[in-house]
C-alpha cells in the first residue's frame, strides 16, 4: 500500500529530473576535466545523455529504476501492471537505440547508476579509451 495519495505520488513522480541529474553532472564534469569535449542531450535518435561527435560515441547514463536494472529495480507495489509495462517498454527502447547506433558505426556506451556508484573511475576510463582513440 502506498503511503502517499495518488495526487501526492503524481506530484512527487513529476518532479523527478530527466536531465542534469547529479549523476550526469558529476560524470560530465569528469569528462570535461579530462579534456573530452562533448554535447549533452543532443536531439539524436534516443536522445543520448552525452555525445562525442568527433569520436562517434554516444553515452547513456541509465538509472536503475527507470531502465529496469535486474539487480536494483524495485517495482512499486501499486499499479503493478502499469509499471511493468512502462519499465519493459523502456528496456525495449534501450535495446533498439543501442542497436541503431552500433549498426550506424557509432560506439554506444551505457552505464548503470550502480556501476557509476561502484566504479566511477572505471566508467570514465572506458569513455576516455574511446574518446581519444585514433581513427584510421
Topology of this protein?
Blueprint: H1 6-14, H2 22-33, E1 39-40, E2 50-52, E3 57-62, H3 80-103, E4 107-112, H4 113-118, H5 120-131
Parallel strand pairs: 3-4
Antiparallel strand pairs: 1-2, 2-3
If you had to describe this structure to a student in words, what would you say it looks like?
It contains five helices and four strands, in the order H-H-E-E-E-H-E-H-H. With 136 residues, it is of the alpha+beta class. It has one domain: 3-Layer(aba) Sandwich (Endonuclease, Chain A). It has a four-stranded mixed beta sheet with strand order 1-2-3-4, with helices on both faces.
Features:
136 residues; alpha+beta; Endonuclease, Chain A; 4-stranded mixed sheet; 4 strands; 46% helix
- The CATH H-level superfamily is VSR Endonuclease
What structural class is derived from the secondary structure elements? alpha+beta
Low-confidence stretches: none
- Count all strands and give the number: 4
Give the termini distance in whole angstroms: 58 Å
Number of helices: 5
Average the pLDDT over all residues and give the rounded result: 86
- Cα shape: globular
CATH fold field value: Endonuclease, Chain A
- Mind telling me which CATH architecture this is? 3-Layer(aba) Sandwich
Characterize the largest beta sheet: strand count, sense, and whether it forms a barrel.
4 strands, mixed
With strands numbered from the N-terminus, the spatial order across the biggest sheet is: 1-2-3-4
The top-level CATH class is Alpha Beta
Written as H for each helix and E for each strand, in order along the chain, the element string is HHEEEHEHH
- Radius of gyration using CA atoms only: 17 Å
How many domains, as an integer? Answer: 1
> Percent of residues in helical segments?
40-55%
As a percent range, the share of strand residues is 5-15%
Amino acid at each position: 500500500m502506498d503511503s502517499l495519495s495518488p495526487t501526492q505520488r503524481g506530484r512527487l513522480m513529476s518532479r523527478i529530473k530527466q536531465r542534469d541529474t547529479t549523476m550526469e553532472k558529476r560524470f560530465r564534469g569528469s569528462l570535461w576535466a579530462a579534456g573530452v569535449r562533448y554535447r549533452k542531450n543532443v536531439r539524436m535518435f534516443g536522445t543520448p545523455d552525452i555525445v562525442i561527435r568527433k569520436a562517434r560515441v554516444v553515452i547513456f547514463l541509465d538509472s536503475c529504476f527507470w531502465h529496469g536494472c535486474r539487480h536494483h529495480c524495485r517495482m512499486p507495489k501499486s499499479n503493478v501492471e502499469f509499471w511493468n509495462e512502462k519499465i519493459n517498454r523502456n528496456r525495449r527502447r534501450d535495446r533498439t537505440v543501442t542497436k541503431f547506433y552500433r549498426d550506424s558505426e557509432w560506439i554506444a556506451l551505457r552505464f548503470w547508476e550502480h556501476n557509476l556508484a561502484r566504479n566511477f573511475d572505471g566508467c570514465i576510463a572506458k569513455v576516455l579509451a574511446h574518446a581519444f582513440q585514433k581513427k584510421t
